[in-house]
Design goal:
about 35% helix, globular, twelve-stranded mixed sheet, TIM Barrel, binds S-adenosylmethionine
Length: about 300
Amino acid sequence: MKDKNNREIKHIRFSITSKCNFKCIYCDQEGFTPKTSELAVEEITKLCKILAEILKVTRIKFTGGEPLCREEIVQIIRNVADLNLYKDISLTTNGYYLYEMAEELFNAGLNRINVSLSSLKPEVYKRIYGLDSLGKVLKGLKKTKQIGFNPIKLNFVILKGINDNELENMIEFCAINGFVLQLIELHKVSDALGGNGEFYEKYHYDVKPLIEEFESKAVKTIIRGNMQNRKVFIMPNSAVVETISPSHDFCMGCTKLRVGCDGNLFGCLYRSDLGKNIKEVLRNHYSLSKYESIVKEVVDSREPYY
Ligand code: SAM
């Protein structure tokens, strides 16, 4: 399905809970606040099936809050894998419970994992995430790799004066361990969620000059046309660095549809207010064409950029 600006929806970002055991200083809350209770496991499975059938999408990413704080996470992954409609099932996690859960998640059918890791220094890690758990997360990462997840991506949100001096070290860490580094530029948090104006002004680090630097040093550059026109660089030390920097190009290349844990379907991190809550409709067992018209309305609410 294409939106009114001719962008095709190619994947789903599904928040399955707003619960989280971390207090990340930059948190965007995935662009929404739940208005009602979480969807039940069966409702999540049903919605995933409907969206795959309507949109013909084969990629889905589960997020939170912290998705591993949702008690039924393994069941959710298994149910969605058993639909046999998605080729790429991934999740983004703070990594705290990976050591205990990575194997079960792998066996349930999870294909890929992104782990938030914005520092390799314990005291900086604690400042960013609010928890002194770097060691536990690194242990979880090691286990995740041993189990066979591939690729494993590390989400590094670069913050001026906090962790910008760790980038080189992080690239080296990824090269040594075979992880992909996602270098993420801090973005603004929607005003509807309280905004992060002052924090943004203080800690925002412009990634564009870094992208130019990578461009000049990389042995190969790839543009992920499917994914907000993100640039991926293969560095001389074989590190793979993906850059995520909000811009008009970024939004023009956005192919994502979002689902909140309360069933709110929305098209943009900054406009959850344009979404539609699908929970009641899911309970009413409507026809696929009825669901299609609701999804189309949400997809068409997407603007070229914000
Ligand atoms: N708790 C999970 C985690 O830590 O991955 C999932 C939710 S978290 C909101 C997902 C990702 O959003 C994080 O890895 C982080 O990279 C990104 N993120 C959150 N707030 C951000 C912001 N203000 N700017 C840039 N990235 C942000």
